[in-house]
Fold these 2 entries.
Entry 1:
Amino acid sequence: MSGFSPDWLALREPADHAARNPQVLAAVGAAFASRQSLTIVDLGCGAGSNLRGTYSALPARQYWTLVDFDPALLAVARERLTAWADEAEALGEELVLRKGDKSLTVDFRKADLNTDLEWVLGWQPDLVTAAALFDLTSVRWLERFVASLASQRLPLYTALTYDGRESWEPAHPADAKMLAAFNHHQHSDKGFGPAAGPEATETLAQAFRKSGSAVTVGESPWVLDAGSAALTRELTAGIAAAVAETGHVDAETIASWLAARAKAGSGRIGHQDLWARPV
């Protein structure tokens, strides 16, 4: 799977946390409200943002296993979690953290979710979670993933899956053309085969419903404004680069659109959160 830089992950983290759908997260918390402790596996953990965005809704004692293919990102996750916690202690390969009234033990594992998926899910956590991951995977991989979860009756909470919707102010004549080309690029192979892209959440939801799971979906858009200027610059530069790779939009139009997006304004980037649990 394509890698992501620690700087990009740090830049997007505040927007990710602000965008999470509170009703979906509350439903996850309610499912485990009677528990004193919980084991969680976080897939494609990056720099640990999903843990930081989810932990407050979960029981007082949490055991996290953070999984990523990139050992450099796992090292960054360890560093950032140590700095984020109120207290942090290294016990061998694990981190023991205190944040508010929560106690978190965190383990870090390198794994390839193409070849090691069943091994990872075989750890049988109480909860599987991920953020900004599944739009990068293929429909075939998603169906395999849901089948493996369903066979072990494992629940899934996933946040911030791109849904293909964008809007910008002020508008630009090329907005629709740029979005269509970008969404075409989102279906390119990110390491799992042709990516599901904007259809990922619906693919997950349908597969879970067929397996007999209860599914809750909620919107979690990034809302960008003048205070998000740095994120907007990086995001739109990335969109422009992806569109250029498709060849669907000429270079002059891309440059004009990118210049317009660099001006003060606002944007809304669509994502969806999903909670699926066996019934």
Entry 2:
Amino acid sequence: MNALLTDPWFYAAAIPAVILVGLSKGGFGGAVGFVGVPLMALVMPPVQAAAILLPILVLMDMVSLWTWRGIFDRLTLATMLPGAVAGISLGWLTAALVTADMVRFIVGAVAVVFVARWVYQQFRHGSAYAARPNRLAAGFWGAVAGFTSFVAHVGGPPFQVYALPLRMDPKVLTGTSAIFFAVTNAVKLVPYFALGQFDTTNLTASAVLMPMAPLATLAGAWLVRRMRPEVFYPFTYATVAIIGLKLIWDGVIQMF
């Protein structure tokens, strides 16, 4: 434990990771916060990085829920959350078979194709184009988000594959995302505990990093409240594309 907490490279990776995740939890940058685990994985095993981040994510979720209280889309949550719980359960059952690197590659590929599809729709339908709610699609992408969130904390891109095309008000989208991931992260505590990931070393590291979490989350919320939809959506899609390419790169490098 002492070796980890006195390692300057741990802080060099973990502090930026927590700040980026916090800004994302506040709603700023969409999927940009999901570089947290890959960034920390530069200096420690990915599973340990995910375990250290999970309690911090739960704290950030509490701040997000308070910040965006009463602002959410009920239908999106009702149709996506059951799939998310099923996806987490599937991730738990297949944890020994599916590596985080495989998940990163798949999620990255989905994210890049998703953004390419959005660019095509902008040229074909214009920037005002909005998809209609679809219960089957919501359940499917909710399950994918739950699965990828359990394995590597990268549930954001699959969630946005379904939610972004609905073109909700940015504040409603952020509030809906806050509730969705608060529930999924709370559910994930059970399998992570069962897998023995919450040992003294990881929990102590989480506690050391936690003071930054609320400030970064509130900063993200402050920025989102001041962004117009015509700025928010292109910015968010751009971050999804960048993170998607990074996930593909990380997955290919580690698998091959």
